[in-house]
Amino acid sequence: MSRGILFVLSGPSGVGKGTVRSALFERDNHKLIYSISATTRLPRAGEVDGVDYFFKTRDEFEAMINNSEFIEYAEFVGNYYGTPKKYVEDQLAAGQDVILEIEVQGAAQVHKMFTDAVFIFLAPPSLKELRKRLEGRGTEEDDVIAGRLETAIREIILMSEYDYAVINDDVQTAVDKIQTIIQAEHYRVKYIEDSLKNKILLDTLGGN
């Protein structure tokens, strides 16, 4: 059985990572497992523990850090975010593709542990649009939004460290592009070489 591929969807806060990931999973033809992140931030309206995030207290999260239970974690605007390790590793070993939806800081840590992961940067059409989306949440004060925009500028500069970049100007178009990336990755020689060689050689020998 071939090992699954780890896809990392990352980008600035407010760019729409969660919206794009949800739209991707609404399509019947996806074969991805979503790796749920843990966070110490409070749930937003409609978010469910164990579905959108594992919501933890700060003490609970720091205990998980001390037990080395994360692939990556970061503190972002006063809250921790992290990716639990065991679930991801078990799914990949079982041949399942896994997608992580994480902040840019966390993506850099994932790269150190999973060097063969596929990194997709989700970018906003503009900083003006990003500000509009952040303000549209209605969940944060102006100084927090300003901090997120300053961070976003630094993160956009890091785009060159990713394998792919997708502009989220339209959610369904962004999902189309991400599905194209996923499909293309499965045709990389390193993933299909052994099975393809065996098929070609067995067919050839059988024909003789």
From TrEMBL:
Keywords annotated in UniProt: ATP-binding, Cytoplasm, Kinase, Nucleotide-binding, Transferase
Domain Guanylate kinase-like: 4-183
Catalyzed reactions per annotation: GMP + ATP = GDP + ADP
Name of the top EC class for this enzyme: transferase
Residues noted as binding ATP in the record, renumbered to the chain: 11-18
Chief location: cytoplasm
GO CC list: cytosol
Localization terms from the record: Cytoplasm
Protein name, UniProt field: Guanylate kinase
Gene coding for it: gmk
